[in-house]
Amino acid sequence: MKKRYRIKDNTEFQHVFKNGKSFANRQLVLYYIERPDQQHFRIGLSVGKKIGNAVIRNRIKRYLRQAFQELEGKIKPSSDIIIIARNPTKQMNFHQVKKSLIHLLSKKQLITKK
């Protein structure tokens, strides 16, 4: 992911948590906030230590980054999105993670369906 597409700063995470809206399914939690002044979307990923060891957590983050990269042209550009992984994601493969992410994004109209 390019730097301009990432949310890394804790204050930005907290801003989205406090002022944004959330939606969840069994595998992922999505927080988002509209930012009309932005030219592109930004994402932040959070995978807690309860999910598993570093290898598992990094694999989940790789899957999520790759899914966002594949969906880049379809995601609404004026939004900040934070994804928090839940425990069932550790048994999922890439296609299942991507399907779960598309489900969340489409429920909140953050993605355009083909």
Summary of the model, kept short:
The chain is of the alpha+beta class. Helix content is 36%, strand content 20%.
Output the helix-strand order. HEEEHEH
Number of helices: 3
Q: Hey, roughly how much beta strand do the residues contain?
A: 15-25%
Largest sheet data: 4 strands, mixed
- Major sheet: order of its strands? 1-2-4-3
Give me the Rg, rounded.
13 Å
Percentage of residues assigned to helices: 25-40%
Tell me the span between the first and last alpha carbons: 24 Å
Instruction: Let me know the number of strands.
Output: 4
Question: What ranges have pLDDT less than 50 throughout 5 or more consecutive residues?
Answer: none
The global form is globular
Mean pLDDT score: 90
The helix/strand class is alpha+beta
Provide structural commentary.
The protein is α+β, with helices and mostly antiparallel strands and 114 residues long. Helix content is 36%, strand content 20%. It has 3 helices and 4 strands, in the order H-E-E-E-H-E-H. The protein has a 4-stranded mixed sheet, with helices on both faces. Strand 3, helix 2 (54-70) and strand 4 form a beta-alpha-beta unit. Helix 2 (54-70) crosses helix 3. The longest helix is centred in the middle third of the chain and has 17 residues, at 54-70. The mean pLDDT is 90.
What are the SSEs and their pairings?
Elements: H1 10-19, E1 21-24, E2 28-34, E3 42-46, H2 54-70, E4 79-85, H3 94-107
Parallel strand pairs: 3-4
Antiparallel strand pairs: 1-2, 2-4
Helix pairs in contact: 2-3
